[in-house]
Amino acid sequence: MERFTKSKKMVFPREIIVGHNSTSQIAELCDRIGRGNSVLIVADKKTKKLAGDEISKILSKANYDVKMKMISSPTVNEVNRVIKYGHKNNINLMLGVGGGSVIDVTKLSAYELSKPFISVPTSAAHDGIASPRASLKHSKGSVSKTAVSPLAILADTKIIRKAPYRMLASGCADVISNISAVMDWELAYRLKNEEFSSHSAVLAKTAAQLLIDHADDIKPDAEESVWLAVKAMIVSGVAMSVAGNTRPASGSEHMFSHMLDHLGPGIMLKGKRHKRPMHGEQCGVGAIMMVYLHGGDYEKIKNSLKKIGAPTTSEELGVSKKKIVEALVRAQEIRPERYTILGETGLTEDAAKKLAKTTGVI
Ligand SMILES: [Zn+2]
Questions:
Q1: Cβ(139)–Cβ(276) below 8 Å
Q2: CA dihedral 72, 76, 78, 83 (to 10 degrees)
Q3: CA nearest to 204, candidates 167, 224, 233, 228
Q4: pTM of this structure
Q5: Mean pLDDT of successive 10-residue stretches along the chain, which has 362 residues
Q6: Measured distance CA(289)–CA(344) in Å, rounded
Q7: If you measure from the C-alpha of residue 100 to the centroid of ligand 1, how many angstroms do you get, rounded to a whole number?
Q8: Distance from the CA of 306 to the center of ligand 1, in angstroms?
Q9: Is the separation of the CB atoms in 318 and 342 below 8 Å?
Q10: Distance, CA 25 to ligand 1 centroid (Å)?
Q11: DSSP code string of 67-102
């Protein structure tokens, strides 16, 4: 028998608090984490008002030395500014109070500073609130970077409920897209002998299934929808921690989404300018098509997205049909080393058109 040489590292959040008014527990949470007195809150203009100020007040009352650093966008520059500030002020613990961008900037700067961080989401637009990966914007789209899982997550459903419903629906679509991501991973395991974790795959699918099963309950102005969505996102994040990579939550549907980002904004449809589609919305539409390619039940994905109120067509997404087809054709260029149903060379234009039409996306 061959000698056993396998070794693996997994990093998980230590404590997760989700629910109504959980913000009030922030000081006790920091006490239990016990990393020191100097806390840095990272927020943006909006999330400062929404939760940052309140958290700062609670922590100051509990004798923490609280500083706040405001950021404006998820860029390398902003990450560097936070790192510099963290160094100068001898920070012990960081709190990312905000949406995906704020949390991603905090995650990356905490990683560089080797400081623990708490994820305090004020919206739930994608699964990054609990994952070890972060994405940053640059001139040609976005790039995904390795960071570390939050040491703790504190998700106040009362606050997240106040965010636009569109964000929550997009976050749900991001988690539902785990279905195609896991199919891609299984394929890569079979075809390329890629390392595969069945535990991670089961967790990622469970998170998606939770939202598919509860699609009827996920609706605007219901705090319970936030509860379900955040729970699923946390399970999705744990799946990534178990895998040690984003495989369980990011496959061909994410490549399609990243290619749409890469192809650029300024999306025009019938002369009207639409709001830029969100990450999870694009991944949801991508998942419909990729599950079809896998021979899976794409109607189930589509119906769940519809029930939740996430886009299922190019029109709802606000992207032209031409761009959908182009993104399908070029999607595998995003991460050629990550094997998916798109294969090594991707779809032909005719196949892409047929796929988008058959699934009702265009
Ligand atoms: Zn995603």
A1: no
A2: 150
A3: 233
A4: 0.94
A5: 87 95 97 94 96 98 97 93 95 95 94 95 91 80 80 97 96 98 98 96 98 97 95 95 94 96 66 74 98 98 98 95 96 93 96 98 96
A6: 18
A7: 11
A8: 18
A9: no
A10: 29
A11: EEEE--SSSHHHHHHHHHHHHHTT-SEEEEEESHHH
